[in-house]
Amino acid sequence: MICIKTISSADNHHHMLFSKSDIDYGNYFKGSPKYKIESFEIDEFQKISHLCLDRNENVILAAHTGSGKTVAATYSIRLALENKTRVFYTGPIKSLVYQKYKEFQKKFPNKVGIITGDCVIRPNKPIIVMTTEVLANITLNNFKKLRDVSHIIFDELQFMGNPKRGKNWEKAIINSPKDINFLFLTTIAENLKTIALWICDLKMAPCHLIKTKKSLIEREYLLYPCIENNFNLLKENDKKFNDEIFYNVKKKCSLEDIDTNHISNVLKKLLLKKCYPIFFYCNTRIDCKKFSLKFKNSNFLYEEEKQEIQKKINLFITKYRQYKIIIEEMNKYKVLLLNGIALHHSGMVLALRNFIENSIISKHLKVIFTTETLAYGFNSPVAAVVFIGLSKFDELGKRFYNFDEFISMSGRAGRRGICDKGTIILMVNKILEIEAINNVFHKRSYPINSQLQIDYQLVIEMCTIKKDEFIKEFLVKTFKNFQNNTLERDIDLYDKRISVLQKLNYITVDRKLTSKGSIFASISYNPGAIIITELITSFDVFGKCYGLSAGILSLFVCPHCSDKTNAVNNNILDDFEKIITKIRNIEKEVKISKRKLLKINYCSGMFKRIELKMNNKPKKNEKPIVKINSNFDNDDDIAIFFYVVENVLKLAKRIVDHLGEGMKDHFEHMIKILHEIDRGNGFLDY
């Protein structure tokens, strides 16, 4: 039985305790934390979180965007350093992790390291920032690394509900030692009480839920109907949504697309109010480029600012002078940058994206056209954000932003102590877009639901541990089971998955990995691991040609796209179908339900490019020579190409040690060629 009680409730916060026993805190929360870590006076909700951490009690801190959640993270780090222990900070995406790495380095010089899938720097330092995926792997396979850790900070807890990333959160939380203190940072979500109950039950220790009741940043939401060329106040701070204005604008909507003239009108109005820097959120990368180039002859910088950014550009070119593609990218956008304009999206090389982010922080850029890439992992606020439409493309196709995405994106406008007022402008022209606005403002946050699946990846990971009692204990502890009492079904499905893998010769009767199983285990993080393993061990497709082998691996690491012009050849697709049919037949044989049958997604967007770039086959002892032609069909795809190269390399390196001699030689040489592509272009330079 868990005791739930409210400790305090005020105008700006609500504090609840979840505990196995009724704890009497007396006047404890009227006192002061052990350490003063900020020069300014902290808020009551921050003070309460610090006092909870002083008692080594777990905390879920849910605060509106820009309210100062990071202050609690800094306090948790200070406690670990004072106690001469270590602290792990985890974030859901690499961009956020790199941002925090830089931020913590400034606050705690020479005490910070970083671990991601591609980058390890000073891993023995007392403060380590990492992706949640890395932490999940550490808790499963490298328990010794947690020996001196006293605190783990989970930033952006709402990502536990993300279909792609959520399972790593659950694994990391379940498998961490009970005596490690947890601090969860999140935006407001529907079911945080349920998560607090789960954490209390899981760790057999108190868990505090501290929530802000309202945003501490003054924000105004303005509707800009393009047909009128004026701003309409739709909502201000926590006041009521203005239905009258909304329906008046709705009547005037047309079918006309938003164009450069509309954007120019919005920009002029904001500049007159001295409201900058400004993010213009675009639906696609192509729109980012199109709109930014339309303003290339506009200038938003004073002469002194121009000189400063010119110096930064010169230093950048000197640093990356041997990397042709990076220099080409910089030269392409230099005119924009010198006028205080930039674009930012995932199709740009990482070095240039970092340059743009640093230039926003240093206030050398005033107008930025971006996709949602700057909504997460970027801690420098802007004065205004402008939505040029409210839709995005993902693996599901085109859809409108949901509530959580909209809140994160609009939350870039304004930040406490830096920019005290934020302006959010919604440009609308069409009925569908105005309805999307209505939905966003009238819906509440989504609940955070378990994304843990009893799939083949999980089964293989558990078989590497080789302890049946651990598996049962793990399934008992899942948030999935806590939410929906799924234990019996989960164990049944787990055992059926075991039977399938045994029939496919991945594991033995006593549940140990075979040599085939060890290949799967080495790349189990990848959803296509079972198909890749089958292709290597049972089909004659790998080993023929380096380009073909790398192209096949690219199918399982390429971001999902609608581009089918680079489609893979039909013979390989036939092999895919044979593998999936074979596995599904076995699944049906062991009575796995139709809903749980194997499903594999792939993307062929970079297959032909990878294959063609590797088509120079050097002799075995020759140094690979790879000619990279940067003239892609769409130059926005350069970064995607090198992202795929990086991840194909990662797959190949993990696989190679588990192969027989002939195939091992083939993979080793393929790795050399991929390294040459990487080194020749410097895309992966962090």
Broad structural category: alpha/beta
Highest-level CATH class of the largest domain: Mainly Alpha
Strand order, largest beta sheet: 1-2-10-3-9-8-4-7-5-6
Report the count of strand segments: 19
Largest sheet: 10 strands, mixed
| Termini Cα gap | 49 Å
Helical coverage, percent range: 40-55%
Number of domains: 3
The mean pLDDT is 87
Shape: globular
Structure explained in plain terms:
Helices cover 44% and strands 15% of the residues. It is α/β, with parallel strands linked by helices and 686 residues long. It folds into three domains: 3-212, Rossmann fold (3-Layer(aba) Sandwich); 218-442, 3-Layer(aba) Sandwich (Rossmann fold), CATH 3.40.50; 456-681, Sec63 N-terminal domain-like fold (Orthogonal Bundle), CATH 1.10.3380. The strands form three sheets. Strands 1-2-10-3-9-8-4-7-5-6 form a ten-stranded mixed sheet, with helices on both faces. β5 and β6 (120-121) form a beta hairpin. Residues 617-631 and 680-686 have low confidence and may be disordered.
